[in-house]
């Protein structure tokens, strides 16, 4: 049964029952109509309470129904209108979650009681739509336009205590929200309900409100670059100010359909489900997320307190895992300790504001220089800088100090996990955990499986990722893994574009208008140009190891751009030195301005090398950079380094600033059309046979020959996996 009804004296309790999250599917909506109708007609019933089974009110509309005929049967807003118009008081008992349509349903009730652990919100914007069951009209009428706009446009999950302050709920209880709701329902029998019907409330407008809404539009355009849903949300809320409730509803409905027509909701909903699928890893042996048991991680250690290590310590502490933090000398330990403690203070402050007690919600952090203290920890994460010899030295030590069943993780961004594991006595317990900077904020975790990594180690690392609130994606072991490997051809194209006549700010602007959080040159300046330079020097691509007589723009017979090397040779490492592809106000400065030095340097460089200049075409910038990414993604699938295109997209959406409303590079390729992607790459490669990264991948050709099947069918075409996963 999708909803059940029982009688508690004169109060009917209607319980939504659709595990795991009580999504308001067509069958639930039908059941609600039936149960609510019967309760309303039953003369023994004087009040009605609405709750959800499994201590969850509801996660809202069933997202899988969007775009299907099921969504057209029984509209949620019709149910909401019926509830609001009820002559008997209706109380929502909110436990766990009331999100999206779930909160819209609760807003139609006359009263709302929430359990202290509950979270409420209207997160539709995060899946590319707007609250379209009256939410954009009722919430501003309840809590005012500014507060409602913040809730709707940011889509955040609001803790019950804050919801009470905002006025979204009437009561928050420590104990049983259902009992409290029944009590309240009994108490209000016979009270007038008119003021409790939000659709009847009028919002008074003034010029300040108009200015506020106009500013919100400008802010949203900058903040959400290219995403349509936040702007539609603001338009809908604006309608609540100017229009009657019913006209506002009509506007909400129109905005919903116009958003749907942009294709952004489909991409964001694909991204939503892909994230959930990433947790359901499978292994070529047949083992899966639901057959392998993760070991509990009660204590952990982090080696190295640089930027990455600090973020990882905070992540573990926020997941209530006590951490031992190690540095190599007293001075570095002191610096790291200060930085970690200041971040922890900020976290504690946030917890206090949410009404939580920091000491019981943050794991303790103990700082030491002594590896001997690691003998009892369940898991260690090494986070020193990218140097194979240093990492091996640390893993040798860990192997002899840590208890035999402790897991040893390396936070490498691309080094060989097998080589690191080879110096230990327990390569089966060694696994890559590639965090993204800042590790306490970024959601992505690449879990890198080595040849000998055990299934238990995989299950444990994936589970730890979830516990840290991250999206963990299992990938195979190859140089640079998935995300950074794809970055290679992308950055290569960006550099070639500079050689051919563009400037860093033009390439960045095109990619940022496409929706990237940051264009390639801003990204390199932020990360530090010296990182790639060091790696290229080690590989003999630049510096003293390059054989005499090698042409400046060629390595091993392929095209090579030395631009970044030349910048580094001039001491331009990016933000940290105050100069890179841009100039900054000071070393460590954040605001980059186009640099006349770079312009002059590029002009001279092009002249020296007599490079043919391309006419300016921002579309070409996007095509070359985005298709280079996707092409490498196809190769990664062929190699068995990622198990499906969805995983690659999850990595790009959560770790590399790819715009979620474009789904990810593989989804984007699919939506542009694989034959077109293939054709563009083929033309480019024919004209530039010295750029092997743009040679169309075999899998791309195979899928394009099939006419570009939907992305969910690609998996079957990948062929026999190379068993890297
Ligand atoms: C025409 C009417 C138009 C508009 C009106 C209303 C619109 C809406 O309500 S849109 C939906 C708004 N709600 C959300 O965006 C919430 C989305 N869900 C979540 O944020 C999370 O799932 C959660 C906080 C509810 C639970 O998180 P967690 O405990 O970590 O579990 P999972 O995320 O793994 O989810 C478990 C399971 O449930 C599926 N699921 C979650 N929400 C929905 C949903 N709204 N519709 C359909 N399915 C949902 C999720 O995919 C997982 O299932 P699978 O493992 O099979 O994928």
UniProtKB/TrEMBL annotation:
An annotated Gene Ontology molecular function: NAD+ binding
Q: Which InterPro entries does UniProt cross-reference here?
A: 3-OHacyl-CoA_DH_NAD-bd, 3HC_DH_C, 6-PGluconate_DH-like_C_sf, ClpP/crotonase-like_dom_sf, Enoyl-CoA_hyd/isom_CS, Enoyl-CoA_hydra/iso, NAD(P)-bd_dom_sf
Which processes are annotated in GO (biological process)? fatty acid beta-oxidation
For this protein, the parts annotated as crossing the membrane are none
**Which transformation does this protein catalyse, written as a reaction?**
(3E,5Z)-octadienoyl-CoA = (2E,5Z)-octadienoyl-CoA; (3E)-hexenoyl-CoA = (2E)-hexenoyl-CoA; a 4-saturated-(3S)-3-hydroxyacyl-CoA = a (3E)-enoyl-CoA + H2O; (3Z)-hexenoyl-CoA = (2E)-hexenoyl-CoA
Note one Pfam family from the annotation: 3HCDH
Domain 3-hydroxyacyl-CoA dehydrogenase C-terminal, residue spans: 481-584, 621-707
Q: In which pathway does it act?
A: Lipid metabolism; fatty acid beta-oxidation
Where it mainly occurs, coarsely classed, is: other
The places in or outside the cell where this protein is found are: Peroxisome
Q: Which GO terms describe its cellular component?
A: peroxisome
Looking up CDD domains in the UniProt record yields: crotonase-like
List, alphabetically, the PANTHER family matched.
3-HYDROXYACYL-COA DEHYROGENASE, PEROXISOMAL BIFUNCTIONAL ENZYME
Family, according to the entry, reads as follows: In the N-terminal section; belongs to the enoyl-CoA hydratase/isomerase family.
Assembly and partners? Monomer.
Q: What is this protein called?
A: Peroxisomal bifunctional enzyme
């Amino acid at each position: 049964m999708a909803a059940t009804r029982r009688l508690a004296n004169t109060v009917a309790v209607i319980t939504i029952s659709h595990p795991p999250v009580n999504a308001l599917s067509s069958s639930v909506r039908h059941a609600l109509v039936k149960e609510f109708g019967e309760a309303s007609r039953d003369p023994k019933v004087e009040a009605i309470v609405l709750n959800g089974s499994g201590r969850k009110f509801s996660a809202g509309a069933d997202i899988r129904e969007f775009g299907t005929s099921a969504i057209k049967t029984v509209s949620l807003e019709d149910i909401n209108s019926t509830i609001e118009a009820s002559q008997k008081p209706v109380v929502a008992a909110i436990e766990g979650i009331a999100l999206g349509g779930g909160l819209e349903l609760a807003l139609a009730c006359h009263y709302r009681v929430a359990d202290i652990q509950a979270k409420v919100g209207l997160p539709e914007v995060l899946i590319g739509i707007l609250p379209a069951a009256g939410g954009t009209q009722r919430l501003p009428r309840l809590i005012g336009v500014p507060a409602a706009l913040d809730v709707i446009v940011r889509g955040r999950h609001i803790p019950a205590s804050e919801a009470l302050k905002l006025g979204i709920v009437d009561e928050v209880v420590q104990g049983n929200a259902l009992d409290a709701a029944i009590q309240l329902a009994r108490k209000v029998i016979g009270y007038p309900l008119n003021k409790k019907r939000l659709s009847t409330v009028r919002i008074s407008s003034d010029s300040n409100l108009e200015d506020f809404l106009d500013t919100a539009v400008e802010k949203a355009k900058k903040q959400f670059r290219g995403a349509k849903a936040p702007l539609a949300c603001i338009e809908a809320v604006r309608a609540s100010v100017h229009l009657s409730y019913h006209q506002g509803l009509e506007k909400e409905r129109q905005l919903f359909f116009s958003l749907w027509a942009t294709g952004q909701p489909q991409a964001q909903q694909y991204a939503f489900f892909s994230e959930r699928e990433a947790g359901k890893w499978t292994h070529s042996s047949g083992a899966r997320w639901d057959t392998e048991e993760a070991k509990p991680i009660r204590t952990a250690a982090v080696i190295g307190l640089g930027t990455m290590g600090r973020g990882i310590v905070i992540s573990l502490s926020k997941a209530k895992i006590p951490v031992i933090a190690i540095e190599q000398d007293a001075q570095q330990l002191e610096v790291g300790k200060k930085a970690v403690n200041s971040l922890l203070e900020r976290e504690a402050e946030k917890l206090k504001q949410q009404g939580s007690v920091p000491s019981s919600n943050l794991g303790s952090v103990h700082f030491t220089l002594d590896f001997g203290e690691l003998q009892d920890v369940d898991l260690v994460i090494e986070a020193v800088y990218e140097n194979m010899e240093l990492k091996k030295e640390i893993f040798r030590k860990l192997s002899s100090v840590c208890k035999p069943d402790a897991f040893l993780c390396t936070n490498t961004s691309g080094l060989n996990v097998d080589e690191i594991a080879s110096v230990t006595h327990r390569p089966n317990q060694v696994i890559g955990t590639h965090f993204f900077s800042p590790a306490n904020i970024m959601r992505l975790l690449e879990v890198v499986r080595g040849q000998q990594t055990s299934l238990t180690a995989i299950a444990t690392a994936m589970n730890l990722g979830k516990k840290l609130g991250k999206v963990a994606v299992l990938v195979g072991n190859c140089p640079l893994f998935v995300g950074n490997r794809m970055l290679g051809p992308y950055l290569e194209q960006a550099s070639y574009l500079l050689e051919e006549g563009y400037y860093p700010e033009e390439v960045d602007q095109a990619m940022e208008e496409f929706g990237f959080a940051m264009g390639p040159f801003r990204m390199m300046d932020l990360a530090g140009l010296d990182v790639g330079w060091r790696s290229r020097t080690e590989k003999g691509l630049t510096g003293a190891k390059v054989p005499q007589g090698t042409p400046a723009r060629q390595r091993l017979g392929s095209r090579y751009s030395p631009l970044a090397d030349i910048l580094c040779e001039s001491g331009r490492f990016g933000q940290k030195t105050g100069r890179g592809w841009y100039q900054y106000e000071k070393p460590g400065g954040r605001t980059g301005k186009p640099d006349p030095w770079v312009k002059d340097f590029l002009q001279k460089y092009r002249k020296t090398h007599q490079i043919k200049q391309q006419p300016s075409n921002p579309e070409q910038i996007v095509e070359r950079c985005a298709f280079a990414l996707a092409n490498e993604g196809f190769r990664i699938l062929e190699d068995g380094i990622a198990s499906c295109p969805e995983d690659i997209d999850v990595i790009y959406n959560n770790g590399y600033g790819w715009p979620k409303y474009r789904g990810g590079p593989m989804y984007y390729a699919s939506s542009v059309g694989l034959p077109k992607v293939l054709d563009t790459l083929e033309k480019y490669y024919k004209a530039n046979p010295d750029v092997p990264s743009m040679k169309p991948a075999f899998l791309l050709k195979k899928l394009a020959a099939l006419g570009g099947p939907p992305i969910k069918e690609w998996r079957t075409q990948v062929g026999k996996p190379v068993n890297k996963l």
